[in-house]
Specification:
Layout (H helix, E strand, L loop, with lengths): L15 E7 L2 H8 L6 E3 L5 E3 L3 E8 L4 E5 L3 E7 L4 H10 L17 H5 L2 E2 L2 E2 L4 E8 L4 E6 L20 E11 L19 H15 L7 E5 L5 E3 H10 L6 E2 L4 E3 L2 H7 L6 E2 L2 E3 L6 E4 L5 H19 L8 E3 L8
Parallel strand pairs: 1-4, 2-4, 3-19
Antiparallel strand pairs: 5-6, 6-11, 7-8, 9-10, 9-11, 12-18, 13-15, 14-15, 16-17, 17-18
């Protein structure tokens, strides 16, 4: 059975029944005549295999990027297996702005719309025009426009109605040549003369200082989502914790950093059977010392239960936790 330890960045010891590489769309059509995948995998940066997996895995290795432009916009068509950060780097090198806030986010281009990746005030859905995907049910290529993707905070139609039936093959982007830099968050606000390059470099510096490199210590980035709560719940918490950080999402809801909630409870730096709550970023759990899937799940449940008991907020995990046959819900 193929090992999965190198196919997910958390690096837990696990194996799979079948792993098939998808290098071309033709390969995709050919495979579809023989088998139906239970899981589509990119670089494994948002998926954790907690035990041996008995299903069929298709690994997305599609490649190719094209650029075009008109008087107002740059247009990019990127194969879904391309590395996301590599695409951002190419855009910065070409002085194409828009993606610089999303630098160093791990994963593939195809994973970006599934998660609607975002950082430092920017979400990728802002730039997506269309997504091409292979429909596993009727074995055909289809196009979906951004208006039908149901994008939300770390949400899209690909996590719900189209989950397990759509293999994203290509993502089309439009980046306006005239736009305002987004520098409202943290250290970006201190930039006196923001530019594509300065924002890009600052974001990389921030992420490298806060987040562990999965090549050195296994992790899947942010383990939990930042909760979005109604105003009345936030007001109650602010009355008790005056220093609680927050971001207004709408007139009715507020986003609270999950890392602050977790750190407030003393989990930051704690180690549970080889799994650590990272000492520099409490939102990240790491495979600190040959941890196991069971230890990871136990520790995550402890954190979730403690946050709910103290703050009345139910954390949701952002990563995809895979068990022997299906996804695990904490």
């Amino acid at each position: 059975m193929p090992s999965l330890s190198a196919l997910h960045t958390f690096g837990l010891d696990a194996s799979a029944q079948t792993v098939s590489r998808v290098d071309t769309v033709s390969t995709l059509f050919a495979l579809a005549q023989q088998q139906f995948p239970n899981l589509i995998l990119g670089e494994g940066s948002n998926t954790i295999f907690t035990e041996d997996y008995t299903g069929v895995i298709w690994q997305n290795c599609l490649s190719g990027i094209t650029f075009s432009e008109d008087a107002d916009c740059h247009y990019i068509s990127a194969a879904s297996g391309e590395n996301w950060h590599a695409l951002v780097c190419r855009c910065v090198d070409l002085n194409i702005g828009g993606f610089e806030n999303l630098a160093l986010i791990p994963g593939t281009v195809g994973a970006a719309p599934i998660q609607n990746i975002g950082a430092y005030g920017v979400e990728v859905s802002k730039f997506i025009t269309e997504i091409e995907y292979f429909d596993l049910k009727d074995k055909s290529l289809k196009i979906i426009c951004t208006e039908d993707c149901q994008f939300g905070y770390r949400e899209s139609i690909f996590k719900h109605q189209l989950r397990d039936v759509a293999f994203i093959t290509k993502v089309m982007f439009r980046l306006p040549k005239q736009y305002e830099y987004v520098v409202n968050y943290g250290e970006l606000a201190a930039l006196k003369l923001p530019s594509i390059e300065s924002i890009f470099q600052t974001v990389i510096k921030i992420r490298e200082n806060k987040l562990p490199d999965p090549r050195n210590v296994g992790n899947a980035g942010s383990f939990f989502k930042n909760p979005i709560v109604p105003i009345n719940i936030f007001t109650r918490l602010q009355n008790e914790y005056e220093d609680i950080p927050h971001y207004l999402v709408s007139n009715t809801h507020v986003k609270i950093p999950a890392a602050w909630l977790i750190e407030r409870l003393g989990f930051k730096g704690q180690i549970h059977e080889g799994i650590q709550c990272h000492p520099q970023q409490a939102l990240v759990l790491t495979n600190y010392a040959s941890g196991t899937g069971r230890a990871l799940i136990d520790f995550a449940k402890q954190i979730k239960a403690a946050v709910f008991k103290r703050f009345g907020i139910a954390l949701e995990h952002e990563v995809q936790l895979m068990g022997q046959t299906e996804r695990i819900k904490l």
